[in-house]
Amino acid sequence: MLGVIAGDIIGSSYEGTNKAKEDFPLFEGDSRFTDDTVLSVATADALLNGGDYIEAYQEYYNRYPNCGYGGSFTEMAKVNNLKPYDSYGNGSAMRVGPIGWAFETIEETLVEAQISAEVTHNHPEGVKGAKAVAMAMFYARNTQDKDLIIKNVSDLGYDLSKSIEDFEIDKFDVSCQGTIPLCMAVFNDTDSFEEAIRLAVRMGGDADTNAAIVGGIAEAYYGSVPVGIQKGIFERIPEEMANIVVPFVKEFVDSDYKKPLVRIRDDVTKEESLGSLFGL
After folding, report:
1. What is the pLDDT of residues 162-198, one digit of tens each?
2. Does 28 score more than 90 pLDDT?
3. What is the CA radius of gyration of the chain?
4. Contact 176, 129 (CB under 8 A)
5. Which residues pair with 89 in a beta bridge?
6. Which of its termini does the chain have fewer beta carbons within 10 Å around, N or C?
7. Is this model's pTM higher than 0.70 or not?
8. Tens of pLDDT, residues 226-267
9. For every residue of the chain, which 3-state class applies, written as one string?
10. What is the percent of the chain with per-residue pLDDT over 90, rounded to a whole number?
11. Class of domain 2-32+85-253
């Protein structure tokens, strides 16, 4: 969950470019959350509170309407008419991360991933992309065997035989068919959460979404997101999002989780400051 948001925010400054150097700053002045974070938090909200996915996606679009959503999604959401539109875009894959944490069996995980995808991305490739990411996260949090993770995702119908050197840098491919193999190669060819995020971003193209997907899988595999990166997240998301993210992490990821102390901004109230101090 935190890995998805971290990847999205860190990648947001570099979408459509490959200007990021190997040691690029993780958080820039224009680093911000985008639709990847908004809809992932919406998924988490639905799981926590028993809501309907399409209603959650519509509600969160209405709260945060200018966050870089896809064209078809925007056209429907802005008139409050979200419905399936046969999409195979990677939107189904980038918002499914919370489902990868929330269930105890792979069967439940795959069923729920399909449900979350089909409310908009009901093309078979859109559904498959959501299943692939949820599956990768499920196995990543339950095994340290990358070969097993890659094999299981491959069995959905992806060719995951390529290493990262086989992919074109700065190729802007927003399909699930193009996104999943790249993200799995980034995960497979790196050895830490931060290294995975950095490589996803340096590949350019749809950097925020690619890094969000990689971040979700990497968090599940490596067990956590570095505290410094967590602070960067909570400095950049509104309190109402944090009030979903923190309970979700406590419920499904780490029951002892505490939100890290973050910098107090001028627009943060005293109550919110106290909440940060006590991990609320």
Report:
1. 999 999 988 889 999 999 999 999 999 999 999 999 9
2. no
3. 17
4. yes
5. 175
6. C
7. yes
8. 999 999 999 999 999 999 999 999 999 999 999 998 875 444
9. CHHHHHHHHHHHCCCCCCCCCCCCCCCCCCCCCCHHHHHHHHHHHHHHHCCCHHHHHHHHHHHCCCCCCCHHHHHHHCCCCCCCCCCCECHHHHCCHHHHHHCCCHHHHHHHHHHHHHCCCCCHHHHHHHHHHHHHHHHHCCCCCHHHHHHHHHCCCCCCCCCHHHCCCCCCCCEHHHHHHHHHHHHHCCCCHHHHHHHHHHCCCCHHHHHHHHHHHHHHHHCCCCHHHHHHHHCCCCHHHHHHHHHHHHHHHCCCCCCCCCCCCCCCCHHHHHHHHCCC
10. 84
11. mainly alpha
Residue boundaries of the structural domains of the chain:
2-32+85-253
Count of residues making up the chain: 280
